[in-house]
Amino acid sequence: MSDHAPGLGLPVPATLHDYGAIGNLHSVALVSRHGSIDWLCWPRFASPSLLARILDAEMGGHLAVRPEEASRSRQRYLPSTNVLETVFELPDGRSLTVTDFMPVEVGVAEPSSPRLLRALEATRGKVTVGAELRPRFNYGQEGPDWDGNDDRWIGRSSGGSVWVAAPGPLEPVGEGLGGRWTVRPGTRQFLQFGWDRPPAELEPPERLLNRTIGYWRSWVGAGRTRSSRQRSSEPPLIERSELVLKLLSHATSGAFVAAPTTSLPEWPGGTRNWDYRYVWIRDAAFSAQTLLSLGHIEEAHAYLRWITARLRESGPRPLRVLYAAHGDPDLSERTLPHLRGFLDSRPVRVGNGAADQFQLDIFGELLDAAALLAQVDPDARGEVWPELAPAAEIIAAQWAAPDRSIWEIRGPPDHYVHSKVMAWVGLDRAARLCRLNHDPAGAERWLRAAEEIRREVLSRGVDPESGVLRQAFGNARIDAANLRIPMVGFLPFDDPRIRATIERVERDLSEGPFVYRYRGADGLDGPEGSFLPCGFWLVLCLARIGEKARAHERLAGLAEAAGPLGLWPEEFDPKGRIPLGNFPQAFSHVAYLRALEALRD
């Protein structure tokens, strides 16, 4: 009956479906249904981890609270929020609810007092809870020295300090703190865990909880009002995806991180383990476009302000592929050999070497987002153009060069068809922006340059025998990235070349409803799971060519990957039925929302 043994022996992290995510628009924590917070980087998304049990059950660090008696647990979000409840049900009908949240400070570039709160509430009788607080600074390499007594403690290390305010007494246990206390019905107790040092006066926790709930619900409501969406007709995963995208955004800069984690593997025990705690130009553009379609105009404005600042910084050099949300300059990739890795997958990496790659498609994604904002919000036209004209100039100068593709191939660069198509998109949208800004001569210039790219793609990017769009010029391999080609308007969905490509992806890259990016060597060792955005792209394409029954069937099959909370990972193993990759993944949530939109049209 029980999935929690008596005492506080925590199970080894085994599946991403056991986790919910909370955050404060500066960092994100992963909360296990077993009562342990197993991932938290403080005070920023890409800061060294403080809690990293998901990467190493012994060394990583955790903060656990749960009943000492045997219990079952389940998780749910409070409606329209990123406030998470974990409910522990005891055999005799009693229960303990742990409500986890991180207060959001509105309009601040850096939080003044980052903290995480765990509210404890019992029903149908008192519940004895146990607590383990074992933060480990600098990716698990250093424990703190504790100072305090009873229910107030500060832990200091060379990597920073934390403070604890507990509802009952704690005492040092090894490198951490431990305690047990009784929670009675009718009262809510709070465990507070904060970064740096406690404020001179602690704001009442109930007020922080109510303010946090109000913030998330107000944000969702503002988007719903602007987009005239109706709550009653909306699948619940739409709102959850909307909230995840906001959760992965920086409070003031307009940047969106790809995911809040590092090194969650693309295959159990494999080496494809990357750090996604950064802002990819492409992924962030996707997130901004998607939130714009859901009525969140300011998020799109903020993203474009952020990207124009990066363009000004880069000068004549192309934009980097990725940046830190808080502006940290060092993105160098390195390994952490002291950590075992999730599912024993090594190496654990921090930083990301893709930052130095040339990926042609990012400029098209950027200008596509800008053109959409200018179309939706006429007031934005002067803001986004000519500020973004340098991106079009970069495309015009470099579209004929090989790149590493949307997939960040670590082998030699090539002339990837999807990349060339996105170069066309960038110049096509540059022409659109010129027209919106009453510059017909500029529009004509960019259209001529775009047509040159179009001729090259249709001449060299289509297999003459099958009519299928190639992965790269001279390379007949099939690539699911080419499903995006009709989505951006390069060819219509009913074009024979598009239909042939859809059929080949479904035949050669699918396993049930799940779709792989491509097959074959890519400069890396070992396999990977199916890539969830590709599965959603195939759903969208099928819906657009009139195959809505098949599209619905595929989407229903993909739902397994979202788990009980509706959080999409990056990848999924169709045979082992396990979620893989960094989590939750913005790219997957974006692709899911676009697939739903196609099915509802």
Number of strands: 25
**Helical content band:** 25-40%
- Give the CA-based shape: globular
Integer tally of domains: 2
Q: Regions with pLDDT < 50 over 5+ consecutive residues? A: none
CATH architecture of the largest domain: Alpha/alpha barrel
Distance between the termini: 45 Å
Spatial extent as radius of gyration:
24 Å
CATH class descriptor of the largest domain: Mainly Alpha
- The tally of helices reads 14
Overall mean pLDDT score? Answer: 94
What portion of the residues fall into strands of 2 or more residues?
15-25%
Major sheet description: 8 strands, antiparallel
Under CATH, the topology of the largest domain can be stated as Glycosyltransferase
Name the structural class.
Answer: alpha+beta
Structural commentary:
Strands 1, 2, 3, 4, 5, 10, 14 and 15 form an eight-stranded antiparallel beta sheet that branches. Strands 6-7-8-9-16-13-12-11 form an eight-stranded antiparallel beta sheet, with helices on one face. The chain has 601 residues and is an alpha+beta fold. The chain has helices at residues 137-140, 205-227, 236-247, 281-293, 297-314, 361-376, 381-384, 389-398, 417-436, 440-460, 496-508, 532-544, 548-558, 586-600; strands spanning 19-23, 28-32, 36-41, 49-51, 62-67, 72-77, 84-89, 95-101, 115-123, 127-134, 145-149, 152-157, 160-165, 171-173, 176-183, 188-195, 279-280, 322-323, 334-335, 349-350, 510-511, 514-515, 530-531, 571-573, 578-580. Strand 3 and strand 4 (49-51) form a beta hairpin. The chain has two domains: 16-213, Glycoside hydrolase, family 65, N-terminal domain (Beta-galactosidase, Chain A, domain 5), CATH 2.70.98.40; 235-600, Glycosyltransferase (Alpha/alpha barrel).
